[in-house]
Each structure stands twice: as C-alpha cells, then as structure tokens.
Amino acid sequence: MRLGATMSIVGFSAGGLISAFFSYKYLLVFDGVMYIGSTIVLLKVHWVEHTKSIQPVKKKQTVRNALQSGRYTFLLMVGFVYPLAASAYQYALPLIASVKEHGDLYNGFMWSTIACGSFICSLIIKKHVVNEWRYLVSILLFATFVSLTFIYDLTPVTFLILILVGATEALVQVCHYTLLQRSDENIRGRLFGLNTLVTRCGFLAGFGFIPLLAKMTSLWDLVDAGLAGDLLCCLYVAKLLF
C-alpha cells in the first residue's frame, strides 16, 4: 500500500504536469517508457521457490464448498460492489477539474492528494485490528467523504476532503486483503483468483453503465447512487451473514 501510494503521488503529479504544459502525446510516451522499464526489471528478477517441509497433503476445498462460508461470500460480494461504486467517483472526479484552466494539472494533483491520504493511512493502520465490522465502517466513511467531495466546486477544501478519501480508501483495501489473507490456505489461492475476477467485473460494469447514467442525471446524483448501492448491499449482506 505504501509503495503503491508513493508511486501514485509521483505518477499522477508528473502526468498532470506533462499533459497540461506539453501534450498528451508526451504522456503516452512517458507511460510507454515506464511499462518497458518495468518489463525489463521483471525479466531480470530470479524467482526462487523455498523448499517446503513435507507435510500431510490436505484435501483441497472446492469453490462451491468455500462459498458456503458466509465470510468468503461477503468478501467476494463487496469485492464486486465496491469497485462498481468506486467507478462512479473515478469517472466523475476528472470532470470537476475539466472546468478549470489547466484542468489536466488539477486532475493530476487531485489523484496525488488521494494517494497522499492513502500513504498516511498506511503508516497508521495495524492489521491486527482488522475485522468484518471495521471493514464495513471503513466503506461507510469512504462513501461519506467521496460524497462530500462533490458538494461544491473545486476549492482548497476539496483537496482536504480528498486526503480523507485516500485514507479511507486505503483502509478499505487493507481490510479487504487482510481478511482474504486470513482465509484457509487450502482455498486462499482460489479465493484471491475469484476476488480478482469479481473486482474486474465490478469495474467493467461500472465504467460501462456510468457514462450512460451520466447523460440522464447530475454528477452529484450519479456518485450518490453508486455509493448508496454499495452501502445498502454491504449492510444487507452483513445482516444476513453476521
């Protein structure tokens, strides 16, 4: 989380500066160079698998049996709904900056501010305090701060709220992946795979429908509808499972 937040702080700011004062073409070149550099680094990494001690082979659980556990169903349900709702604010946030001169620069700084909040939160949160209810509270706080971001036009107060958005978003991510990591080792790999699938499907559905809904309603209503759906789903599943 800390490493990703640090890279986001630098990357979004650099992207905003390049796009605002040069051209998006230079931004594409910058992205391409970064991807090529990452590829070269990964190709040079030598993966060493440590020798495992001989232990009795445990029977692997099937996905169907794993999903009978309320905890796993809850995590996968939220893993789909959360990115579905988050795509609404990710789509709407750049539109706030677009009305300003050098909107690309403001957009980059806004995302860097969110990353700053994530970095600060990653220094504070401890994994041993994570549980399902704190996970739900973090989603509630995230939805509240995101909603506040769209009350007014872009002002200095907006950047203060975005720090809180980043902090609560980091809290959501840490809680989610800590709970996944605590799953039984016989199902953990499959559970992470399913989580990746439902997360991608959530973003696919969100960015597919959000632009269509944006033509029929305001940004405020659009973001609130996505966040409200997220909260209602989480609370409903929590009521059934816990």
UniProtKB/TrEMBL annotation:
Q: Does the keyword Transport apply?
A: yes
Localization: Cell membrane
What's an example of a GO molecular-function annotation for this chain? transmembrane transporter activity
What's one Pfam family here?
A: MFS_1
Q: How does this protein sit in the membrane?
A: Multi-pass membrane protein
Q: Which UniProt keywords apply?
A: Cell membrane, Membrane, Transmembrane, Transmembrane helix, Transport
GO CC terms, sorted: plasma membrane
Its chief place of residence is membrane
| TM spans (from-to) | 7-27, 33-51, 72-93, 105-125, 132-152, 158-180, 192-213
Cross-referenced SUPFAM superfamilies: MFS general substrate transporter (SSF103473)
- PANTHER family from the UniProt entry: MACROLIDE-EFFLUX PROTEIN, MAJOR FACILITATOR SUPERFAMILY (MFS) PROFILE DOMAIN-CONTAINING PROTEIN
Name the chain's protein: Major Facilitator Superfamily protein
Q: Tell me what organism the protein belongs to.
A: Paenibacillus nasutitermitis
